[in-house]
Amino acid sequence: MNKVILMGRLTRDPEVRYTQTNNTVVASFSLAVNRRFVRQGEERQADFINIVAWAKLGEFCSKYFKKGQQVGIIGRIQTRTWDDDQGQKHYVTEVVAEEAYFADSRRDGEAASSSFENTFGSAAPGAIPGGADFEVSSSDDLPF
């Protein structure tokens, strides 16, 4: 299984380009993800992780994500290689986004969130609009 879940801040606005063959949107950006533990006497360290979002998700990220915003990304790790013009081999590891979410508080991301809500409603991509289709009462027998 290849699944990655990240939460971090964008280090720059997403960069958009289009594929040559079928003009598909590709958005690239980097997330600064804080490490979980801090050594005593040291500052918190972060990893800078490259993210790639394709097609509709790429359009969404390019339109609503901005530098400094905290976001959640669910995706998969992908590695690839290529040779440049001088014959030098390059390796890159990146996360291919499958889902993207706002993770800022309402106050921090108010402009982006309200713009998103005006367009799509209050649910984030991947969320169930209007909540669940059922209710659980305290008298229900639950298996957990």
Description:
The protein has 144 residues and is mostly beta strands. The protein has a single domain (4-120), classed as Beta Barrel (OB fold (Dihydrolipoamide Acetyltransferase, E2P)). The protein has helices at 55-64, 110-120, and strands at residues 4-10, 15-18, 25-34, 46-54, 70-83, 89-102. A hairpin with a 5-residue loop joins strand 5 (70-83) and strand 6 (89-102).
Question: What does the secondary structure layout of this molecule look like, with pairings?
Answer:
Blueprint: E1 4-10, E2 15-18, E3 25-34, E4 46-54, H1 55-64, E5 70-83, E6 89-102, H2 110-120
Parallel strand pairs: 4-6
Antiparallel strand pairs: 1-3, 1-5, 2-3, 3-4, 5-6
Briefly characterize the structure:
The chain is mainly β and 144 residues long.
The assigned CATH architecture is Beta Barrel
Uncertain segments: 112-140
Number of helices: 2
Indicate the percent of residues in helices. 10-25%
Shape category: globular
Strand content: 35-45%
Largest sheet: 5 strands, mixed, barrel
Q: CATH top level?
A: Mainly Beta
Strand order of the largest sheet: 1-3-4-6-5
Give keywords.
globular; mainly beta; 144 residues; 15% helix; 6 strands; five-stranded mixed beta barrel; 2 helices
